[in-house]
TrEMBL record, chain A:
<dbReference type="InterPro" id="IPR011704">
    <property type="entry name" value="ATPase_dyneun-rel_AAA"/>
</dbReference>
<feature type="domain" description="AAA+ ATPase">
    <location>
        <begin position="26"/>
        <end position="201"/>
    </location>
</feature>
<dbReference type="Pfam" id="PF07728">
    <property type="entry name" value="AAA_5"/>
</dbReference>
<dbReference type="InterPro" id="IPR027417">
    <property type="entry name" value="P-loop_NTPase"/>
</dbReference>
<dbReference type="InterPro" id="IPR050764">
    <property type="entry name" value="CbbQ/NirQ/NorQ/GpvN"/>
</dbReference>
<protein>
    <submittedName>
        <fullName>MoxR family ATPase</fullName>
    </submittedName>
</protein>
<dbReference type="InterPro" id="IPR003593">
    <property type="entry name" value="AAA+_ATPase"/>
</dbReference>
Length: 285, 394
């Protein structure tokens, strides 16, 4: 499992590899929590690539409901069908009515699409933004992997999709939903792992630059910042410096490009007060 | 990778040597004793996971348990501790043991070395474990509930009259309305119902939704005479789903769940058991920062109406409080400060904390009486309040 994920360029540790393995075997969703930019959403795309399955994404937002997430009837097409039938002189009203609620008039939204596509990876992104009602609805779907459409009957996934739920913890997700999932907390990676990730993602960047940037970000993260930078920011920073044609970074250049990692004025000020040159020197580069 | 079902025995556990299962069940029990909510369903998943991994390795058992038995970041530290205690000392070889989460991200944020700094007579109560909050303490905090009949009548009126709703904002959703844009969906459905004959156009318009309300209730010693009444106010307010309640003292505690109980007395009892820092000191600045780091900035305070119920007596650095209030003010739609002491004759916001906080406050109101709390509810709903400096009082 781990080797297959790493082939896609997504590095996993033991815990996450175990989680993915169990998710596939036990058909349980993985519930991912952690700071922004630590690779929660990227996990789903890596899984999709590793399993060679399409990734179906449902972005949650306030007020999301079943017709946006599950299915909807295609009214204009139904109407068109009626008109066509009328023009052709179809008289069998009962049959016509039955035809109206045919599968082809059903617009599959992400959740239904995930149940129908096999195999597939379903990403329910930022579940904490949706309302409680939607959570309850999702709970029902994730425990049975089936949907009942009143006009059509029950649709069931023979092979349940691999489900990844992510949350940024703007509110606590209900325990009933969490209980059905494998819980994984994403920590910021250590120096060696983060360096490996940067090298894997940006093969064009010089080894020295990657090492220096990773060391700087690790140093920044140990400060008491409003928003500690995630791995995504490390990659952004390395890329920004590489675009500037730098093969290595000094304190001056680091301060000039600080905007790629720190997004708050207070944080940037604090970082400027840091002795960045010392951090670079300590790394022995 | 195939979807082949796992053979599971009748009693829910996978077939296997019963001794190993007994050890795992014992571990789950130990976890439960340590405060992790390892329900039967989770334990079942744990056993299946161990079986699936054919775990002979310590590391596999570790991850199987961590993935299935924990339900939140706060559980991870406890899990780490119980796992080490139960399965023996050394950390699993060849892996980095996850560091315990940094304290500022935890549900209960400490403002200092906990029990020892608290006054002597409070030592026994300052223990964080919920189980140790004595029944005597619960009784003590219920005191105000045992009011005379007149007081109780007043309280009931307070609870009945109060429905704290946030100021409304326009939402992204549309609702059926008499005027507004044409609603294609309902119009087409209406047409369909009439067999395609022209019908009345259906319309919809943007709906209004109340904003989220966040209450931060000071439960420190200086607020003791008001704490119970204010928390009952919070209980009435928390009936809606758009309200979050925290207590601040020497720690930050989220009590929304405790207050969700319908019966006020039961809710107050649950709350007394959950809040470890009754009548201690106040570290407003630090706790406000903990709130913003842990909850506020991630979304809870964004666009919300934030109400601080406190007298502003800050033991920590007022400069820190001022900085955090500015941060809060930038995030929130409106910041309201209710100070029960404001009603006293001759009150001026001289307490260092209060003075530091005031520039970032949109409305500064009283909070000492039923009428004042009703007024506060109106302000939260969006009523204009003439921003009153301390010298001016109603």
């Amino acid at each position: 499992m781990r080797a297959r994920l790493e082939e896609t360029g997504y590095l996993v540790d033991d815990g996450l590899a175990t989680a993915c393995f169990l998710a596939l075997r036990l058909h349980r969703p993985i519930f991912c929590e952690g700071d922004a930019g630590v690779g929660k959403t990227a996990l789903a795309s890596a899984l999709a690539e590793a399993l060679d399955a399409p990734l179906i994404r449902l972005q949650c937002h306030e007020g999301i409901d079943a017709s946006q997430a599950l299915y909807d009837w295609d009214f204009p097409r139904q109407l068109l069908h009626l008109r066509a039938a009328e023009a052709a002189g179809v008289k069998d009203a009962d049959r016509l009515e039955g035809e109206l609620y045919d599968r082809r008039f059903l617009v599959a939204r992400p959740l239904l699409k995930a149940l129908e596509t096999q195999p597939s990876v379903l990403l329910v992104d930022e579940i904490d933004r949706a309302d409680d009602e939607f959570e309850a609805f999702l709970l029902e779907l994730l425990s049975e992997f089936s949907v009942t459409i009143p006009e059509l009957g029950t649709l069931r996934a023979e092979v349940p999709p691999v489900v990844v739920l992510t949350s940024n913890r703007t509110r606590e997700v209900h325990d009933a939903l969490k209980r059905r999932c494998l819980y994984h907390w994403f920590d910021h990676p250590g120096f060696a792992r983060e360096l490996a990730i940067v090298r894997r993602r940006l093969p064009a960047v010089s080894a020295r630059l990657a090492e220096q940037v990773t060391a700087l970000v690790q140093a920044l993260r140990s400060q008491d910042l409003l928003k500690p930078p995630g791995v995504a920011e490390t990659i952004d920073w390395a890329q920004a410096l590489d675009t500037l044609g730098a093969n290595e970074v000094d304190a001056e250049l680091a301060v000039a490009t600080l905007g790629s990692v720190l997004k708050y004025r207070e944080d940037a000020e604090r970082a400027r007060g840091l002795d960045l040159a010392a951090v670079l020197a300590a790394r022995g580069t | 990778m195939s979807g082949v079902g796992v053979p599971v025995s009748e009693n829910g556990g996978p077939p296997g040597p019963p001794r190993a299962d007994a050890a795992l069940l014992g571990f789950a029990r130990a976890l439960r004793a340590a405060g992790v909510d390892a329900s039967a369903e989770r334990v079942h998943a744990f056993l299946r996971a161990v079986h699936e991994l054919r775990a002979g390795m310590r590391a596999d058992v570790y991850w199987a348990g961590r993935l299935t038995l924990c339900g939140g970041r706060d559980d991870l530290e406890r899990y780490e501790r119980v796992f080490t205690a139960y399965f023996g000392g050394a950390a699993p070889a060849g892996r980095t043991v996850t560091v315990p989460p940094p304290p500022r991200l935890r549900l209960v944020a400490r403002a200092g070395p906990m029990p020892r700094t608290v006054a002597r007579d409070e030592q026994h109560r300052a223990r964080p474990a919920a189980a140790l909050a004595s029944s005597a303490e619960v009784l003590r905090h219920r005191d105000i509930a045992e009011l005379d009949s007149a007081g109780r009548e007043q309280l009931r009126r307070l609870l009945a009259a109060l429905a704290l709703r946030g100021e409304v904002r326009r939402s992204a959703r549309r609702r059926p309305a008499r005027r507004g844009e044409v609603d294609p969906h309902r119009t087409v459905r209406e047409l369909l119902r009439r067999g395609g004959e022209p019908a009345r156009l259906r319309r919809h318009a943007r709906a209004d939704r109340p904003r989220r309300v966040v209450l931060l209730v000071d439960v420190s010693g200086s607020m003791a005479p008001y704490a119970d009444a204010l928390l009952r106010f919070a209980h009435a307010a928390a009936r809606g789903s758009h309200t979050e309640v925290f207590t601040i003292g020497t720690r930050l505690t989220r009590v929304t769940r405790e207050l969700s109980h319908r019966d006020p007395d039961l809710a107050m009892a649950a709350l007394a058991a959950a809040v470890p820092d009754w009548r201690g000191g106040t570290r407003l600045g630090e706790l406000l920062r903990a709130f913003l780091d842990r909850w506020g900035q991630r979304g809870m305070a964004r666009g919300a109406v934030v109400v601080v119920l406190s007298d502003g007596w800050e033991r920590g650095d007022p400069e820190l409080l001022g900085a955090q209030m500015r941060r809060l003010h930038r995030l929130a739609h409106r910041v309201i400060w209710a100070n029960p002491r404001k009603a006293r004759p001759g009150y001026a916001p001289l307490a260092a904390g209060m003075a530091a906080a005031l520039p970032s406050v949109d409305a500064f109101v009283e909070g000492h009486s039923l009428a004042a709390l009703e007024r506060l509810a109106a302000v939260v709903r969006g009523a204009e309040v003439a921003f009153v400096e301390g010298a001016d009082r109603a």
